[in-house]
Design goal:
By secondary structure, this protein is mainly beta. It has one domain (14-95): 2Fe-2S iron-sulphur cluster binding domain, sarcosine oxidase, alpha subunit, N-terminal domain (Ubiquitin-like (UB roll)). The chain contains one helix and ten strands, in the order E-E-E-E-H-E-E-E-E-E-E. It has one helix at residues 34-40, and strands at residues 5-6, 10-11, 16-21, 24-29, 47-48, 55-56, 69-72, 75-79, 90-92, 94-95. The strands form three sheets. A five-stranded mixed sheet has the order 4-3-9-7-8, with helices on one face. The protein has a three-stranded mixed sheet with strand order 6-5-10, with no helix packed on it. The longest helix has 7 residues, at 34-40. The structure holds FE2/S2 (inorganic) cluster. FE2/S2 (inorganic) cluster binds at residues 58-61, 63-68, 79, 81.
Length: 104
């Protein structure tokens, strides 16, 4: 699910890292959006809504819709489509408004 050779941008040698999704290591590229790494790993549900509990995944991809909110390194409501991945990050599925929220 990754572009390894682009007709305009050419080839690149990205720095491979690991992030942890709900405790499991998944491969990522340093600096790519967390949501991109999750999609490449086959993860589609990033959070569950506070009212119905339905699963949500990436929608706008530009930081506007909040459907990609997850808990990142203990911080709830992090928009993973605009947050760069770094080695060793811990990313958790968010249920409702997330732990530590005043509306939990
Ligand atoms: S997918 Fe819309 S804010 Fe991230």
């Amino acid at each position: 699910m990754r572009v390894h050779e682009h007709p305009i941008l050419g080839q690149s040698e990205p720095e491979s890292i690991s992030i942890y999704f709900d405790g499991k290591p998944i491969p990522a590229v340093e600096g790519e959006p967390i949501a991109a790494a999750l999609i490449a790993a086959g993860v589609r549900v990033l959070r569950h809504t506070e009212k119905s509990g339905r699963g949500r995944g990436i929608f706008c991809g530009i930081g506007r819709c909040n459907d990609c909110k997850m808990i990142v390194d203990g911080v709830p409501n992090t928009r993973t489509c605009v947050t760069p991945a770094h080695d060793g990050m811990r990313v958790e599925t968010q249920y409702g408004l997330g732990r530590g929220s005043c509306h939990e």
